[in-house]
Write a structure and sequence with these properties.
Number of helices of chain B: 12
CATH architecture of chain A: 3-Layer(aba) Sandwich
Distance between the termini of chain A: 46 Å
Oligomer: heterodimer
Shape of chain A: globular
Number of helices of chain A: 12
Strand content of chain B: 15-25%
Shape of chain B: globular
Strand content of chain A: 5-15%
Bound molecules: thiamine diphosphate, magnesium ion
Helix content of chain B: 25-40%
Radius of gyration of chain A: 19 Å
Largest sheet of chain B: 7 strands, mixed
Number of strands of chain A: 7
Order of helices and strands of chain B: EHEHEHEHHEHEHEEEEHEEHEHEHH
Helix content of chain A: 40-55%
Largest sheet of chain A: 5 strands, parallel
Structural class of chain A: alpha/beta
Distance between the termini of chain B: 42 Å
Strand order of the largest sheet of chain A: 1-2-3-7-6
Radius of gyration of chain B: 20 Å
Amino acid sequence: MNFTADELKRMYTTMVLIRKFEQNSIEIFAERMKRGDFPGALHSSEGQEAIAVGVSSQLRPDDYVFSTYRGHGHAIAKGMPINKVVAEVHGRATGASRGYGGSMHLFDKSINFMGGNGIVGAGLPLALGTAYAAVKRGTDQVTAVYFGDGGASQGAFHEAINMAAIKKYPIIFICENNQYAATTHVSVNCPIEDIGDRAKAYGIPGPVVDGNNLFEVVDTAGAAVSRARGGEGPTLIECKTWRHRAHCMVIPEHRPGKDREHWANRDPIDQMRDHLTAAGIADAAAIEQLDADVQEQLKAAVAFMQDSPFPDPAEIAEVVYAG
Amino acid sequence: MPAETTVRRKLKPIVAMNEALDAAMAADDDVVLFGEDIGAYGGVWALSKGLQKKYGELRVFDTPLSECAIMGTCAGAAMAGLRPVIEIMYVDFMTVAMDQLVNQAAKIRLMSGGAFDLPMTIIAPCGAGTSEAAQHSNSLEAWFLNTPGLKVVMPSTVYDMKGLLTAAIGDNNPVMYLWHKALYDLEEEVPDGVWTVPLGEAAVRREGGDITVVAYSLMMHRAMAAAAELDGRVSVEIIDPRTLHPFDLDTVLRSVRKTGRLLVVHESPLRCGVGGDIVRRVCEAGFELLQQAPQVVGGVDSPIPFSKSLEDAVVPQVSDIRAAIETMVE
Ligand SMILES: Cc1ncc(C[n+]2csc(CCOP(=O)(O)OP(=O)(O)O)c2C)c(N)n1
Ligand SMILES: [Mg+2]
């Protein structure tokens, strides 16, 4: 990896934007819940920012990404404008999906962001489709698809990786192993230590990386993207990570305190901040300024959302079917 | 209703269903429970709270996140003579398990010439109204009703949730037991103890002479609210079928004989829907009882959108039901 100082700062601020966006959304949702107004489900990706940002740094704007219900970070890192993300999560007509999709279903056709998914594991078979289209058309676009440690227990995971390996489709399968599927520990979902080892069964590489280390993610994703773009086939990347919060807002924290402490010392944003300082790219004051700029950007996005109308039900039929 | 006593207390749906499960497991060692997050945690809805502790990890355990495998395990275990119960976290995720349910569980009795019974119960929350968007808000009863071999239960009251779950677990066929998420906070005074509400018996929720409204699950409550708003102007009789298959046609016909008018209300899509079939049955069995064309109020031809303004527009509201009643009667 070879990044300029500006590129490194941009990756840092994208991670901070994801983090602050998640925190702000939770605040707004919590306030509504306090009023007895249930705003829907919200799955925070705090703690997993290095994966989205690291993978996206290796993708071109025309590469495809399939995401999950924990996908705000994936969307922001791929380049979805923050205004569209905030507006969608709060159900406004100016949102990425015009208020039809919500937090779990962010889509942005203009950047080939192919959607969040509420069905665990369902993104993997879809990724075969964009990969096939790229092969058929002779473009060298790559498809990246994210899923969790729990997602690797779905039949869809096995069918999709098997077919991709047979057809040498240009896909990178990114397993964000945050150790838990809802409240269930990964050991209940997987009898072996590393989900990446399952790649062996399909004859493809299955690197296992520290998902909280941006540079490890970057290097591994970079190699997988080159392999895919070069027509050599898919890669399964397992990123070990940790979400800061419980599964979603209505599930209380249940994970052991010692695990939480362990991961608290390995926060991806803290690590990146330390790197920028140690490398002489940004001192404490410069970092503070970067953080403040992100905060301003988010504030403006929230104001944009608050000024935006709710969608008009008269348009539903036109949204359901193509003309 | 054997063990029902006269002590009354307030109960919510989840506790009612949990008590029914508890009683069934206590009474029959063959009753076992599968699902995601249902073990030590007790299920994301708290449905299985305390049951692993009480009945052990062999009978209550966290499965991998694999609905197809869960459904297959359940069907195979039923073939081997057990009486499994599954919690599917949202009915929407049934899609992943459909082959094991539709091609396997529902057909094995027939394909084996009646040799194998499959006594199994699938409990799943359904329905819109919680801003959970298109993949967490489905009402899929019509799919299951279109699958010969399955029974379909859709309770609307806490009393029925408990009594029908007991009956479903005791039934020797695959039963889909669908409870509506928007009824989560319902609270009702019910007797102590355990009781059974037989599959295939409708309940008359409100007596009236002008129009018969057939409504189940959440829509039963909305129909009751619409009827209350029309009190004094229109006399509405409300029939809650409680189970959609088997279906208690007699109770509906008895009501239509009195009112001459039929309106069916459901949340699931109108097209090829439950209401259309109820209207067919009434027309076939009692066309002469009807003074005018029966009507159905149902879900709009759209997946459930996220934003509240959209979500409310695709699912029948009290005002829609009220307007339909007024149009028919006036
Ligand atoms: C097919 C299916 N089954 C169950 C669920 C309910 N559910 C949503 S997320 C989740 C846990 C997924 O865990 P994992 O794949 O590890 O991803 P994470 O949430 O940790 O990011 C479950 C059980 C679902 N959405 N889809
Ligand atoms: Mg996980």
